[in-house]
Amino acid sequence: MPSSSSSLLFSSLLLITSTLIVSQKIGTIQMNLHQFARWGSIKMGDQTFQVAFNIASTNSWLIAKNASFNWNEQGLQRKKVRYNGNSKTSKSLGKKFDFGGPVGNLYTDTLTIDSVQIPQFTFGVVTSGIPSQYQDPSGYDALCPIDGEFGLSPATGTSTLNSLTKYLDKPIVSIFTTKVGTGDDNAGSITFGSENVKNCKPKYSYVPLAERSNWVIGIQSININGQPSINPLGPTKLKITNSGLYMYGPKKQLDILAKQLGFNVPKDSGTFYTKGSCKEMEKMPNIIINVGDNKKQAQIVLKPKQYMEVSPIGECRFLFMASETYASPGDNNYWSMGAQFLLGRCVAVNWVEGTMGFSDAN
């Protein structure tokens, strides 16, 4: 028969363990891709919604039950889920909003991310101005899975992420990417409240954000193993893009990188850099991107399988494209990194400290 002291010790350990389990406030949800936009499922009140994660926005919104669309939803395989405001925790704030396109009314309700609940979460219920990429006026996107947006901008002040801070273990959001197809399901995960240490190495290398409202960091240099750094560097900032597949930089600098790696340099900025064969891919050198500022730096390594591929037509392609032709408007002043850059790695942002960290997949 166990002694009273042993029973007391066991009870104490059980209590500590139970407390740790209950107090862990980390939520992870499956990430999917639609036209390269990241999306996943959250719960608002007693309804489940599929939302696009917009890393450039501070706001979150869902579609109102009385919202108008530019097309008739009848007959579509998937209709939009509309916020009905019927949950016991739903409350209208009696205020209008304009998020620079989406307009409507402000509400609060209980947000659930995985198993983490955030009470009285403020969001917009959109009645009009739904972004065109989430509508289907032409019929090309009849199965668009997006019911709203969830803002992941690390900006200070009023924002979606700042409203989560006190309900999570850490003010950190982590993105892990395993697929980069235009319509891939289960393409990775998004973790709220911690770095992703399940899929990536536990030690993340953090550097300060170069722009407080965006997933942007400074670049110190870019080079190939054993070769001089690109000079001039061109843009001195690296930006994680909201969508897009490839990595983008100025053609002048990409021409230098491509030559060092043995790719043919096209005259046209809208053409792929190619080479005869990818058979020796495993023997190709790494691309080293040194990021950070004058006080703190980190190194991001692009392995051959992350910067080159065999295309569907069998040619060996460089996965960097000229920003002059392909980057989104306003992104020519950055080295812009699409889904391919994130493949096989985790990127985390601490929105309170204003830092971004990287870790390679296990």
Automatic annotation (TrEMBL):
Keyword terms: Signal
Pfam families given in the database record: Asp (PF00026)
PROSITE patterns xref list: PEPTIDASE_A1 (PS51767)
An example Gene Ontology molecular-function term: aspartic-type endopeptidase activity
GO biological process: proteolysis
Keyword Signal: yes
Alphabetized InterPro entries for the sequence: Aspartic_peptidase_A1, Pepsin-like_dom, PEPTIDASE_A1, Peptidase_aspartic_dom_sf
SUPFAM superfamilies: Acid proteases
UniProt key word Transport: no
Gene3D superfamilies named in the record: Acid Proteases
Signal peptide, first to last residue: 1-23
Residue intervals of the Peptidase A1 domain: 38-359
Classification via PANTHER family: BETA-SITE APP-CLEAVING ENZYME, ISOFORM A-RELATED (PTHR47966:SF51)
Record-stated family: Belongs to the peptidase A1 family.
Name by which UniProt lists this protein: Peptidase A1 domain-containing protein
Naturally occurring in which organism (per UniProt): Meloidogyne incognita
